[in-house]
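Annex B. Sample input.
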Amino acid sequence: MKRELLLSAFLAAATWSLPNLASADWDTGPCPGGGTAPCIEAEVSGTTYHFNGSGDHAGEWHGLPTTGEDFEFIGPTQWGCNGLNWNCTVTWTNKIKKCQDSAGDWRIGFQVNSASVSGSFPCAAFVMSGFPWYTKDAKAVSHCPFTDDCNSLIPYSPGASSLVTNLGEIDVTIFGIPRIADSHLHNIVFTPGPSANFSLASEYYDCDDTEVGCSIYGTVSLSNATSLDIH
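Annex B, continued. Sample output.
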């Protein structure tokens, strides 16, 4: 009997602690407002979470408040390579963070950890790799490399309705043949809030900013949360 009671207590404690551990990097409730640091807010399954604008949780990559897994974005895109065009669905997953650069200014970053292409022929033959990809300040003089370096992430602008960023470094094979290597996209627009999304309208460029002969146009939208916002 004592063993059964101990087992029951252990299971109850585990059940209580798992969701709390998953959301340990987030606080429950909306952004409180005030302060000069960015506050990141997400709504998942009817509950709002945030990591606030006081500087808490700075420099840490954050996934979903409920599980810690990546935010997922999915949407229709048009690919072009060497004069050929295909309509394919792109799905990618990413985490978000805020951090202070060497000058003490706040920046926002996204880390893309996986991506896949689906749809009618030949979409399934596109294989994307080179992860993780990182966002980078679109105004940076040197577009490469793309690294987990706060000094190169997206400058935070309070009240901005969107963020503009480059993204790389991206590899793509088509039918097993390397077609895009160590490339990046220009001027991706992230729009935060309900149905947050990334708008893609770019050629692929190498590190010399030379077009490599392929492009992608479309929008991938948040699919596993209600909103992802930046205040």
